[in-house]
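Need tokens for this chain, all 615 residues.
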Amino acid sequence: MAQGKDENKMDVLRDRLYARDGDGQVRRTQLKSTRPASVPKNWERSQQSLQDSLKEEETQTMPKKKKGYRMKLLVAGGVFFGIALLLSLIFLFLGNNTISGENISLEVSGPFAIGGAETVDMRVILENNNAVPIESATLIIEYPVGTQKADGSGQELFTERKSLDVIGSGQLVSEEFSATLFGEENAEKVVNVSVEYRVRGSNAVFYKEAEPLRMKISSSPIVLSLKAPRERTSGQDIELEFIVASNSEETLNDILISATYPFGFEYEDADPRPDSGDNIWRIDSLSPEERETFTVRGVLTGLQNEDRVFTFSAGVGTERDPFTLASVYAVADHEVKIDAPSLNVDVDINGSNSESVIIQEGQSATVRVDVLNTLDTTLNNVTVDVVLGGNILDSIDIGLTDGFFDSKNNTLSFDRGSVSAFRGIPSGARRSVSFTIVPDEEIGKTSEITLDITVRGSESTSSNESDLLYQTTKRTIQLSSRASLSGEARFIGGSAIPEVGEETQYAVDLLLQNGSNQLIDGTVTAVLGENVTLNNAGGALSYDAGTRTVTWTVGSVGVRGSERTTLSLSITPDAGDRGSTPILLETQRFKATNKFTGLTVRAEHTALAVPRAVE
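Here are the structure tokens for all 615 residues:
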């Protein structure tokens, strides 16, 4: 700004100097000093001097700023730059000795699709791109469940470890592995590969994992096919046939077949019989294109329109448990629908329609079978067949008015020839047949009788098997043991004829006899009479003074077994007993549990008195 004003003054002086028409007046300036002025030799120097003087004036007139914080910032920036430079140099010269998992390359390769039970070859490549070696390197291969060694030994393979020891800087290692994989068609199998290693001077274990190798099972070595009805009425027999066929070019060994039965299915038998339980079969070997057939039979029950699913699986077992599937080759499902019954069958035994009925030993059982036609048409050619089973068939008698009893085969048959009403049962009508089972009085073993009842009929009048409708049901009759208890009092000492105020000793013998079932937790209890004392409490005999109750702990009694005990009693009659026959032991009561039926068995014996009246 000051410089601009000076330049304007110079312009004014210049104009006046060269002006032609001056005003003629000359203004003079009073000189303040007589010192000669220093005049520059040329215009440029004069201008430069003027600018320097103006700058000096401006500097003198403006206040000076403090410069302390600028210096601090400058020093801090310099220190930061120095540290960064130092770290960069350290990393530049020493960084090549740092080990990083990112500098380790680990890859696994193999086929993308394989056949079930096929041996798979896999290659693992590991490269150390660190500037220093890695030590104690170990390859770890984790196989899917059910994998076996490729040597055909059948040994299960879970994890395989391969020691590589030291891998130098820049070194590449290639390893090959083989295993036999099993699986269902289209199932995915995953193999995981990793490496563990250490670094020099450290005890820490480092870990590097490769991308998993994923393989798809393109075909199963086994084909399962299943034949069975699609519908069944509740309580009907059902037969399922499944076929195991080889789809492999090599012989398959140690094949496991597992069946999963639905709720409501009662297994009866199978051909061949299972190797474990009622649902596990084992095939030692299966040659190419060879097949094995299995049949399972049972009874299916359920509510109308319910579905029941049977599942059969084929595979290999685990090494720890050869009867548990480790890997599955193939699975076959079969769904059966519970259909409405074409006829209803009710069974009544001594007034009970329970599946299991208990009768007392020596009691007979009256069985009535009712057939109800639920069709919209007449049910023709009805037959009722009852197959008897159990362990006392040689100790029973059968009573019936209609039908025929085959004692050789223990079968009762009722048909239209013996029961005229079975020639045709109208829609909604009910027809019945009955018979009686009479067990022997003395059966020396745990007793049970089973009834397998099958009712058949047809909508047509023909006897064509394909037109037959049938319903099956089962019943069980159990004989409950019958026990008896007896007792007797004997004179031991004292007055032969009880006298008032005199003590007389008696022995009471108790005898328990059992029937055809084992009894457990048996006890006999009785209350002592007035003025009577128990002398031999202890062991199996106990006494409660508060209730005056004697307890004989019998425990277990075998079939047709017996137990005895003797009570030592004393009585001292008082005046009120004169002329009477005092009671030594009130009613004796036996109680036990029938181990076979679970029922409570009871028996009693009347009170025991002294043999003679008191004098």
